Amino acid sequence: MKWTSSLAGLASLFTLGKPSFLNSASYKRAQMQLVAAQADSTPVEDAETGITFQSFTNEVDVTYRLALPADASAEKPYDVILQVISPITNGWVAWAWGGSMTYNPLTVVWANGNDAQYSSRQALGYYTPAMYEDATYTVLKGTGSNATHFKLTALCTGCASWPDFDGNVMTLDGASQVNFAYAYSTTPVDEPANQESTFSIHDSVGHWTHDLAAARSDKFSSWVAANKVNTTTYRRPVRIGRFEY
Ligand code: HEM
Ligand SMILES: *[C@@H]1O[C@H](CO)[C@@H](O)[C@H](O)[C@H]1NC(C)=O
Ligand SMILES: *[C@@H]1O[C@H](CO)[C@@H](O)[C@H](O)[C@H]1NC(C)=O
């Protein structure tokens, strides 16, 4: 009798579909691995910037996008254009470029008024990640916050490459598929205007496979040029003498 009922339980596990302990991305990946190795990202053109990204959206509607130069590979470091879009209900969301929490570049993003703030970090343990200077960001058009979402678009030098424990720089294979990790929390950061703000632990983390090879484009540099933010556009009018500029 026991044997029969546990068999029925086992059968219902399969018929009921998605086991609750798996997030949708890893479940989708597990399903797809039965067929073929396939990435979780798909091509999407962002209307605001005109950039075509490889795009992945997780189970709480946080979207992670990437565009790479045409010759990106594991041979030498390259810049990337990244885009992160999150429902405003998240206090912060993050991208781990090495696919795990520690010892790789982390991009943390949150809303700051009408703007979106990024923070370059690296976790040296399972506690608040430190500031990370080896990745530099140039904020591009397609960055801000509204009533429902915050969105960051940036050029990053040092997101796809970092030194390993021996000091050798390793570069994500831009000609292949790569595993990334995400984390998010609905708790706001302590000081939204400050890139060095402290924040508390994630509500959840997860992993996905991004198709870097398909994210490559020979339009990369023209996309960067077309979306450079004109500092004068954003300068507040200041009155000096009789001229306003
Ligand atoms: C105050 C900030 C944070 C705290 C206190 C924190 C703490 C922790 C702790 C305690 C774990 C569990 C470790 C274990 O499995 O034993 C963990 C796992 C993890 N965290 Fe964080 N975390 C923070 C921020 C971040 C950020 C910004 C990311 C970026 C994506 C991140 C990504 C991950 C991932 C992917 C895991 C799964 C295990 C691994 O990859 O090593 N965490 N974190
Ligand atoms: C708010 O921002 C999101 C993300 O950029 C966008 O999809 C949405 O259309 C915006 N909403 C409004 C009302 O502009
Ligand atoms: C920046 O300013 C120049 C003129 O000074 C203008 O032609 C260009 O369109 C502006 N760029 C953006 C992204 O607004």
Automatic annotation (TrEMBL):
Keyword Signal attributed: yes
InterPro entries tied to this protein: Cellobiose_DH-like_cyt
Gene3D superfamilies: Cellobiose dehydrogenase, cytochrome domain
TM helices/strands, residue ranges: none
Pfam families noted in UniProt: CDH-cyt (PF16010)
UniProt KW keywords: Signal
Signal peptide residues on this chain, from the entry's feature table: 1-19
Positions of the Cellobiose dehydrogenase-like cytochrome domain: 46-221
Protein name: Cellobiose dehydrogenase-like cytochrome domain-containing protein
Organism: Xylaria flabelliformis
